[in-house]
Amino acid sequence: MSETPTEKVDAMPDTEPGPDPPQPTWVVDWDGPDDQENPNNWSPRYKLFISLVLVVLPLIVNIGSSIMSGSLTSLEKEFHIGSEVAILTTTTMFLMGFVTGPLIFGPLSEKYGRRWPILTGVILFSTFCIPRRLWGVVNGGDGGALTDVWNTVVGRGISLDCFVATAFVGPVIGPIVGDFITESHLGWRWTMWITMIAAYSFSIIACVVLPETYAPTLLTAKAARLRIQTKNWALHSKMEEEGETTFKSFAQIYLPTRLHAALLATEPIMILVTLYMSFLYGLLFLFFEGFPISFVEQRGWKPQIGSLSFLSLFVGILLGLTGMVTWSMTTFARQVNSTPGKVVPERRLPPMMVGAVGLPIGLFWFAWTSNPSIHWGAEIIAPGLVSASMFAIFISGLKYIVDVYLIYANSAISANTVVRSCFGAGFPLFANAMYHRLGFPWATTLLAFLAVAMAPVPVIFYLFGQKIRMWSRMTANKT
Question: Most buried among 12, 30, 56, 210, by the most CB within 10 A?
Fold first, then answer.
């Protein structure tokens, strides 16, 4: 006798089926917080070594930005051109390359890792030492690699201080090296040959010793390695979930967009801080034309000796760097530890306020001690105060922008780079006319008054920055 349908129903369990068992996760991540493949867990000594490599490479590029400033007279005589044309074909064209270089190589490093964009940029820089216009274009921002290996707010801040210092130290060293090469038996062309040799030498060293530091790229490589070892082809990284990037999609997502224009057009913090930083960057390259006028033309020093006056700027930058690092390790570190997990951007501004006071004082001092009847020792101290103040303002402004915009930080820094590079490229073009028509004292006094006009910027944001951030539509950090 066959079973009835009722009997079949009775034989079934009287409970509902349970949920499906959890599916395995095939996304590759670090093997815990202490994974030695994670750059954050590398030894302090190895981190310092990588940081040194990452600082030396942009230092060479920045030396190249001003190394030919001491060769302008030779260029004018040999090619029968005016001073403005000589400046245009050397310093200005180089700095205009900075407008496009970081916008290309910076995003590339976020898609393909830090190592290859950095190495590609410095190798191309070495190759294009002869067609100078392309030097700046192939310069890529490799500061991101420093943030990969330093995982604390203070550590990242100090490494960024050292990295940004190369943007000031390099251009200051350039004229000294360039003048001595130009006035030697080698001649002005060897300023480029020596730069190329140095760049290629450090490129080879970097190819051997510089590792990949970008976590998403390292995890992608780890996933590929595990797929081969385990034969589990489902293993993948989060970056691989995004799929292949075509040139069109890369251009649409990463290259300059309306976001950059919006930041510069609608954000008071972005507008004023960028304007202040751009003025400083223009002032730095203006000095490369002004110092020879004051020390060589007016005081009658030889070009090589006159170029040594830039050491005053160099010492000032080192003092500014020392002050910023000390402040980061003491006062700022205590503030960060008092509110863990909370970023207060206005905490970055006290050094900027100190620099805002020191800058006009140094410029007025420089202006009215430039008379040849006054001992040169009184004049040579002033640029040190100027450069120390400039560095404090510049690095504090940069960190403030990053802390304010957070998820938009890359776009904010890119927009800032474009504007200040234009200022740096443009200021040297009117330097000779300004200094010779107004006279060195009054021309420098004009710059001092501009510095006075901009001095309230950090004070305003220190007092009212939080309210301004609350009003902003693009400020990610409103705390």
Answer: 210
Q: Taking a C-beta distance cutoff of 8 angstroms, is the pair 82, 76 a contact?
A: yes
Contact 290, 440 (CB under 8 A): yes
pLDDT for 139 equals 53
Q: Which domains does the chain have, with CATH numbers?
A: 40-239 (1.20.1250.20), 256-479 (1.20.1250.20)
User: Strand pairing partners for 236?
Assistant: 27
- d(CA 289, CA 175) in angstroms, rounded, equals 10
Tokens 């020191």 label which residue?
Answer: 358
CB 27 within 8 A of CB 238: yes
| Residue 142 CB-density burial (10 A; 0-12 exposed, 13-18 middle, 19+ buried) | buried
- Tens digits of per-residue pLDDT, 76-102? 888 888 888 888 877 787 777 777 766
- Residue bearing tokens 């004292």: 441
Please provide residue 202's backbone torsions phi and psi, each rounded to the nearest 5 degrees: -75, -25
CB 385 within 8 A of CB 358: yes
The greatest distance separating any two alpha carbons of the chain, rounded to the nearest whole angstrom, comes to 128
Contact 275, 458 (CB under 8 A): no
Selection from 388, 226, 404 nearest residue 323 by Cα: 388
Tell me: the pLDDT tens digits for 97-125?
777 766 666 667 767 778 877 777 777 77
3-state DSSP: the chain helix, strand, coil percent, rounded to 5?
75, 0, 25
